[in-house]
Amino acid sequence: MNPIHLTASAPLRGEITVPGDKSISHRAVMFGALAKGTTHITGFLMGEDCLSTIDCFRKMGVQIEVTEREVIVHGVGLHGLKAPTADLYTGNSGTTTRLLCGILAGQDFSCRMSGDASIQKRPMGRVIKPLREMGAQIDGVDGNFCPLTLGGGKLHGIRYPLPVASAQLKSAILLAGLYADGETAVIEPAPSRDHTERMLRALGVKVVTDGNVITLTPPAELSAQDIAVPADISSAAFFLVAGCIVPGSELTIRNVGVNPTRTGILDVLRDMGANITMSNIKDGAEPVCDLTVRYSHLHGAEISGGIIPRLIDELPVLAVAAAFAEGETVIRDAQELKVKESNRIAAMVTELSKAGANVSETADGMVVRGGAPLHGASFDTYNDHRIAMSMAVCALACGGKSTILDPGVVAISYPSFFDTLLGLGG
Questions:
Q1: Does residue 151 carry a pLDDT above 90?
Q2: Catalytic annotation on 406?
């Protein structure tokens, strides 16, 4: 895709619906494949990452239909997956890679799994370690990187304290626990997104959360349930920040998932002075609502501690918000940003600096001293969809012209991002 040129935006106004939640879309396909019966998924995110999950399960014998309205998964049951005849390729998707490790650990066949150049640099050792403790046969390059080889093995339940608050790690262990010979418990240092636990309960699995301990009792089977995927708050975050920093803006984002483990972005923006209201609240298996944001005079804040796992994917665009806020914003305890699709700390510091922001990198985050006028620049995307969209939001409030290099990377999670932006007047 050719570079995209952006200039300072007119007020953003209108109503939009952003794509379906990426985390829930992945899990809907995975659990639908392992369930007995047929799962109809509406609101599925047709991004490259989630399509990688579909591709992997098709290679293991699962029939999956994709239509304009829904994704239909014909489940094969907990023990119905077949050995793939080719390597499983997960593309750019860390969620696919890590969660599949848990599922594949309990199969009676061997296979090989890998992804793109970015995935091959992302650490897998923290997933490999507990799965081996459960009895899995799994190894990677230097014991830590893709490609991974996974062999069938008989698993036993464990009680495992997570070294970091990570929904991917937690989910991999719980998914392996579906195949274990006893209970599996994970102990979280801080709450992380709980879509896995919610979905497993909906499919009839006994999952008990007691404080920071989540315990799963392995079921005989999973019972298929239709799944409605809400709009992704991580995608909505770009428009929440854009609405805050582009003068005169007022926009509404419909049917956004507001699971409490994902709403750190709302808490922080409100702490910074953002005018964000919720309406049409519906509290189902995954709570949803409409979010309305209006242009706001933001001020700096400290973003650290237990809230970090609740907004880890939104930190790049929060750094943009901080650059347009008055005063200093400090982001701490965010080491995980270094092992995402890119080193997101270094990437955001570099790109915001190009626009004239006063920002510096720290060992576990960054310090942004906001308030100075920013100017347009040519922004790199690092093959990272969230960096690309964050810098596009930044460009809307910068003086002069900006260029987003390699904007096509947004297809990983939000293929129509730039179309949506233009539709609002951006």
A1: no
A2: no
Cα angle: 367, vertex 371, 376; to 5 degrees: 95
| Cβ-based neighbours of 67, under 8 Å, separated by 6 or more | none
Report how far residue 286's alpha carbon sits from residue 194's, in angstroms, rounded to the nearest whole number: 10
Cα separation, 301 vs 326, in Å, equals 10
The CA angle 6-249-345, to the nearest 5 degrees, is 55
170 within 8 A of 196, measured Cβ to Cβ: yes
Residue 1: per-residue pLDDT: 79
Virtual CA dihedral for 48, 50, 54, 55, nearest 10 degrees? 30
Contact, 172 vs 162, CB < 8 A?
A: no
Q: Categorize the per-residue pLDDT at 425 as very low, low, confident or very high, splitting at 50, 70 and 90.
A: confident
HSE (side-chain half, CA atoms, 13 Å) at 231: 19
Distance, in Å, from the CA atom of 301 to the CA atom of 325, rounded to the nearest integer, reads 9
Task: Name residue 291's beta-bridge partners.
Answer: 253, 278
Which two three-digit tokens encode residue 396? Answer: 């809307």
* Residue range 238-250: mean pLDDT, rounded: 98
Q: Are 199 and 31 in contact (CB under 8 A)?
A: yes
* Residues 422 and 10: beta-carbon distance below 8 Å: no
What does the pLDDT average to over 151-167? 93
Cα–Cα distance for residue pair 346/193, rounded to 1 Å:
25
Selection from 227, 274, 234 nearest residue 253 by Cα: 234
The whole-number pLDDT of residue 259 equals: 97
State the catalytic residue, choosing from 194, 232, 313, 380: 313
Q: Which residues lie below 8 Å from residue 163, measured CB to CB, with a gap of 6+?
A: 126, 189
